[in-house]
């Protein structure tokens, strides 16, 4: 099972609020078999403890430390919100990357995602990707570096 695949990418997503956006990211991880249903609520809980909004239009929701035993395999979901979704305090995410990781994998994934998204050209390419395959290619090229 791959960390990223087209069934875990959603372009043109819309959500009323951050909890709906986080649930959408979690649902893709559940449907792909990375985590059970209850992991989604742990993602919401984690964001309530400390915002998963990273700045620059990027949010990276993931589960709490207590949710780690729930993770069956490492996976990532990516949702592009062209209109943005509020994460509170004027913070608007256009890209929401859900993470479920075994062991310490989440640290590598967080680092890679942050590096890819900190490059303005890469971030713009992600937001304007015209297919799931194109978006995955951008992430995979950044993760190989």
Structure commentary:
Strands 1-4-5-3-2 form a 5-stranded mixed sheet. Helix 4 packs antiparallel against helix 5 (132-143). 41% of the residues lie in helices and 19% in strands. The model has no long low-confidence stretch (mean pLDDT 93). The protein is globular and about 35 Å long. It has 145 residues and is an alpha/beta fold.
Q: State the helicity in percent bands.
A: 40-55%
Assembly context of the chains: single chain
Low-confidence stretches: none
Number of strands: 5
The run of helices and strands is EHHEEEEHHH
Counting helices, strands and paired strands, the structural category is alpha/beta
Q: Tell me the distance between the termini.
A: 21 Å
Could you give a short account of the major beta sheet? 5 strands, mixed
Rg result: 14 Å
Strand content: 15-25%
Protein traits:
alpha/beta, 145 residues, 5 helices
Summarize the structure.
The protein has 145 residues and is of the alpha/beta class.
Topology:
Blueprint lengths: L8 E2 L7 H14 L6 H12 L3 E3 L2 E2 L15 E12 L5 E9 L4 H14 L1 H8 L4 H12 L2
Parallel strand pairs: 1-4, 3-5
Antiparallel strand pairs: 2-3, 4-5
Helix pairs in contact: 1-2, 3-5, 4-5
């Amino acid at each position: 099972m791959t960390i990223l695949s087209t069934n875990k990418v959603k372009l043109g997503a819309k959500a009323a609020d951050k909890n709906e956006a986080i649930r959408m990211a979690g649902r893709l991880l559940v449907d792909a078999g990375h985590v059970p249903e209850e992991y989604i609520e742990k993602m919401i809980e984690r964001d309530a403890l400390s915002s998963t909004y990273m700045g620059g239009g990027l949010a990276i929701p993931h589960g709490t430390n207590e949710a780690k035993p729930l993770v069956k395999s490492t996976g990532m979901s990516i949702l592009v919100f062209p209109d943005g979704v509020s994460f509170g305090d004027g913070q608007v995410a256009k890209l929401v990357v859900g993470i479920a990781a075994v062991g310490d994998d989440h640290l590598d994934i967080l680092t890679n995602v942050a590096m890819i998204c900190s490059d303005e050209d890469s971030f713009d390419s992600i937001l304007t990707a015209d297919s799931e395959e194109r978006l995955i290619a951008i992430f995979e090229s950044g993760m190989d570096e």
